[in-house]
């Protein structure tokens, strides 16, 4: 089931986007949930509540009273409640500013049904590709950490630390994690480290993790593979989100 958010300071625009989403699901057996927000501040309030479910796709206006859609995009990078963003705007000159890790598309107002259909189908495809790590916590709970949420992984002997917005200690060695995440954007870069290419920046032979004060070393035997996968990933994401 897809969770859809619609943020626009125009009630008429919010309702129109909802109708386009509903039209898509008239011909789709899957269900969907939706949340409406009249400004960016309401989105941030939603994100601050730990009990709220993650929004899979947020249709986001750019020019709004208070915090703009572009500023909101920057704020939610550090939060785990918004998965993908599709900007909906009549301001073509803002398109470059809208690009980012979470941005999946830019729709020119007025949006059409085919625009919304294309976005929803992109998100559904990416959700199917979102592999995860499942493990039992000390309390016996089954915990799933999705590849999308992982920033990097650090080996600690036979066990591992998985860094998302927080930190998870799991009783799985890094080689086993590498196998489980084989088809994801999380790759091995060192005998003791894995990184998510979605959050990584390669510069001067080192990897830094966005919004985290850390540099990840690249092992000598991994250098050529990391460089190739890094550039291939960037090209693939650029093509997918055109």
Automatic annotation (TrEMBL):
Response regulatory domain mapped to chain residues: 3-124
Cited Pfam families: LytTR (PF04397), Response_reg (PF00072)
Entry-linked Gene3D superfamilies: 3.40.50.2300, LytTr DNA-binding domain
Any one GO MF annotation of this record: phosphorelay response regulator activity
This protein's record includes keyword Metal-binding: no
Keyword Phosphoprotein attached: yes
Domain HTH LytTR-type residue range list: 149-232
Keyword annotations: DNA-binding, Phosphoprotein
InterPro entries: CheY-like_superfamily, LytR-like, LytTR_DNA-bd_dom, Sig_transdc_resp-reg_receiver
4-aspartylphosphate sites (modified residues): 61
Top-level division of the source organism's lineage: Bacteria
The protein's role, per its UniProt record: May play the central regulatory role in sporulation. It may be an element of the effector pathway responsible for the activation of sporulation genes in response to nutritional stress. Spo0A may act in concert with spo0H (a sigma factor) to control the expression of some genes that are critical to the sporulation process.
UniProt name for this protein: Stage 0 sporulation protein A homolog
Organism: Agathobacter rectalis
């Amino acid at each position: 089931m897809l969770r859809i958010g619609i943020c626009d300071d125009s009630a008429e625009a919010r309702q129109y986007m909802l109708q386009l989403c509903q039209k898509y699901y008239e011909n789709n057996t899957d269900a969907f949930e939706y949340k409406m927000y009249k400004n960016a501040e309401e989105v941030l309030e939603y994100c601050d509540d730990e009990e709220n479910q993650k929004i899979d796709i947020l249709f986001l206006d750019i020019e709004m009273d208070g915090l703009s859609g572009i500023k909101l995009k920057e704020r939610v990078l550090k939060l785990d409640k918004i998965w993908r963003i599709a900007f909906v705007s009549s301001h073509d000159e803002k398109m470059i500013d809208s690009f980012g890790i979470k941005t999946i598309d830019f729709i020119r107002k007025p949006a059409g049904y085919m625009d919304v259909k294309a976005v929803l189908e992109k998100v559904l495809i990416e959700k199917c590709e979102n592999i995860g790590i499942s493990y039992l916590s000390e309390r016996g709970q089954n915990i799933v950490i999705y590849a999308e949420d992982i920033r990097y992984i650090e080996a600690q002997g036979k066990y591992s630390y998985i860094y998302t917005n927080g930190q998870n200690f799991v009783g799985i060695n890094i080689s086993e994690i590498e196998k489980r995440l084989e088809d994801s954007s999380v790759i091995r870069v060192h005998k003791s480290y894995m990184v998510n290419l979605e959050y990584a920046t390669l510069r001067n032979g080192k990897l830094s993790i966005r919004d985290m004060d850390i540099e990840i070393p690249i092992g000598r035997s991994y250098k050529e593979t990391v460089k190739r996968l890094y550039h291939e990933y960037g090209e693939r994401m650029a093509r997918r989100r055109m």
